[in-house]
Amino acid sequence: MEGEGVLSSGLSMAELGLRIRTERRARGLTVERLAALSGISRSMISEVERGAKTPTVLVLDRLATALGTSIGRLLDEPAHSAMRVLRLEEQRVLRDPSGWERRVLSPVLADVEFEFMRTTIGPGVDAGEFAPHAPGSREYLAVERGRLRLTINGRPYELGAGDAVYYPGDCRHAFANDGAADCVYYLAMELGGAGQHESWKESPDG
């Protein structure tokens, strides 16, 4: 998964690269090991860490997942107060060139791996498949408007405005909009502890 995305978050590529390198080194990982864990090539990781290449949202998500953290933590510093108001202009926004956008609505908190986001997918756009997060991870999704095709481990679910769903985050999950209008949904993600990723298997009753 490589490409030249557009990161619209107010964070320079050099700053982002430094944060990824810092997270990698803090975990004692070499570039080669991070490449193996994420499925992203060594050359791509090196370019991203140097600030020479802009990662797509999927590439950034795979790197964050391999590091056992969230995109939000790579984009922002932890909040140091009991309360933090995130004004619209302060929120981190990632725009993918394929036609979708992720807006991070939650602040980064020390020792808390949680992310709350608002995603807009344009009509006819497939946002792609995201890698499983750590075992014990959970995701909660609610569609605000439009139609969403959520695919869990290869099984598609059609969701409409007002529909909500929960699924374990340690599974393959993909998002697409087959409709003729924008799809907007909210997603809350709670990351589980570090460890080997395991495939989630759907129960017989679905």
> Which structural category do the helix and sheet elements fall into?
alpha+beta
The major β-sheet equals: 6 strands, antiparallel
Mean pLDDT across all amino acids: 87
- Share in β-strands: 25-35%
What Rg, in angstroms, do the CA atoms define?
A: 16 Å
Oligomer: single chain
Helical fraction: 10-25%
Task: Flag low-confidence runs.
Answer: 1-6, 194-206
For the biggest β-sheet, the strand order reads: 1-2-3-10-5-8
The gross shape turns out to be globular
Q: Please count the helical segments.
A: 5
| First-residue to last-residue Cα separation | 30 Å
H/E element sequence: HHHHHEEEEEEEEEE
Give the strand tally: 10
Protein traits:
alpha+beta; 6-stranded antiparallel β-sheet; 5 helices; 10 strands; disordered N terminus
Task: Give a description of the structure.
The protein has 206 residues and is an alpha+beta fold. The chain is 22% helix and 28% strand. It contains five helices and ten strands. Helix 2 packs across helix 4.
In short:
The protein has 206 residues and is an alpha+beta fold. It has helices at 13-26, 31-38, 42-49, 57-66, 71-75, and strands at residues 92-96, 100-104, 114-121, 126-130, 138-145, 148-152, 155-159, 164-168, 173-176, 183-190. The protein starts with 12 loop residues before the first helix and ends in a 16-residue tail after the last strand.
Draw up the topology in text.
Blueprint (H helix, E strand, L loop, with lengths): L12 H14 L4 H8 L3 H8 L7 H10 L4 H5 L16 E5 L3 E5 L9 E8 L4 E5 L7 E8 L2 E5 L2 E5 L4 E5 L4 E4 L6 E8 L16
Antiparallel strand pairs: 1-2, 2-3, 3-10, 4-9, 5-8, 5-10, 6-7, 6-9
